[in-house]
Design goal:
Blueprint: H1 6-12, H2 23-44, H3 64-84, H4 100-113, H5 116-131, H6 143-151, H7 153-157, E1 158-160, H8 163-176, E2 180-185, H9 193-198, H10 208-228, E3 234-237, H11 244-251, H12 258-274, E4 277-280, H13 285-302, E5 310-315, H14 321-335, E6 339-344, H15 361-377, E7 394-399, H16 403-415, E8 423-428, H17 433-445, H18 451-454, E9 459-465, H19 472-484, H20 486-507
Parallel strand pairs: 1-9, 2-3, 2-9, 3-4, 4-5, 5-6, 6-7, 7-8, 8-9
Amino acid sequence: MPPTIAPLAHRVLPRCSVSPTLAAASSLSCSSSSFSSLASNAAAHGRAIHTSKQRPSPPMPASFDAAVTSTAQASTQAVGEQISAPSTPKKPSPLSVLPLSCILRSLMTTTVSSSPILLGPSMAIMTALAHSTNPLLNPDRNFVLRFFLKKTFYAQFCAGENEREVRHTIDGLKAIGFRGVILGYAKEVVLKDEEKKNLASFDAASRKEATAEEIRAWADGTLETVRLAATCDFVALKFSGAGLEALADLARQSPPSPALADAIDRICQLAVSRGVRLLFDAEQQAVQAGIDDWTMTYMRKYNTPERAVVFGTYQGYLKASGAVLSEHLRQAREGGFALGVKLVRGAYLGSDPRQLIHDTKEDTDVAYDGMAEALLRRQWMAPLTPDSGAFPAVSLVVASHNAASVERAQAILASGTAATTDVAFGQLQGMADEISCKLVLDAKSVQPATKQADACVQAYKYLVWGSTGECMKYLLRRAHENRDAVERTRSTRDAMVAEVLRRFKSVFGMA
């Protein structure tokens, strides 16, 4: 192009809206018509432009035509791929699997639990309801109070008051995609400081009939819980629900009474026959050493070398948990049985002595994640105490509301480096639903009959059943747990708000 034309042509040539890879070819396709238009405009203004056919064109490189053709073909192919390539489907929201009623109820409870203004009065009311002997404050006797609690907090955390309600709740969870449930009978005792001191002077002979009734009621409720559970479900036991004599024996680290021992055996035998597994829950430190002794006794009796039926519970927030777990692993190795481990952070912050608990949350996180990794890899690593012997078989329940801990355990399983594959993940009903539902979706995304399916995440929900009055102490502990983990509660609240907004937008096609 002559020098007098080039600046003007630069201004006149149209800009083509194409990808950068099409720039060269596009400019060539535009140049012919643009130059003709340029010539006409220049002639109209009396400006001389040489267009003689005799004037030779500037020489073109021999490879120019091939380069233009190649560029155009590549650009056409790139555009074609952009048009034909399928768009990546948007990952569904984990909370999309929950009914709207659950989302709204969870939003209500987490809003109360994360509000400094609402939480104080709510805790005072819950404490009064859990410990009062006034019939007006007993939900089982006050119809209005029972109706309110059952439609709100009870519905959020509990399974039901009878077989029909419990089965309906369990069926609903399994329909969502949960592998199963961890079901517990709500009857329990949370001791006050004065009551802990009185256990040392407990006289069983003076209340034989009351003791027998306490054991019978606990045994009947727990046996019914095992019957409500299905194969591969778990049943959680709280020995404190068996009465004052059980608590006194636990505090003294004595064996269970003959009547209670017989009841525990009947529960274990029924669980074995139904393919149900038993989680012996941790409780307050005043009785925990006795619970550990009882747990190991029944592990020796009912666990096989490859698989656990009875599980103990280990609390990550206790400084001594690593040493206790290490000792139990050695006992399992020597006894030739698999150790059942339910790993939790801890739920008795309000009653356990502060000096027994890790100094910071970060210390608790490190201890919990370290124990989980050691058990998954079956290696004697911190915080376990060193040991040169073999690591026994382990069945593990990762019970955590901490997203980072759950993801770490999932990553170890997914990597194929885990030596322990009998693993379940569990969260409390009504809490950490954003984590639970993600576990469900992760499990659904795994193709059957693959290596990943062998280590597929098994997601469970922990919930209790019983009358509204019987569940009050359990509900109070849930309230304490939410109070002590405000940041996590706010995270769940924010997740629920986001899910409500997402569903609202989807109604109008904006999601």
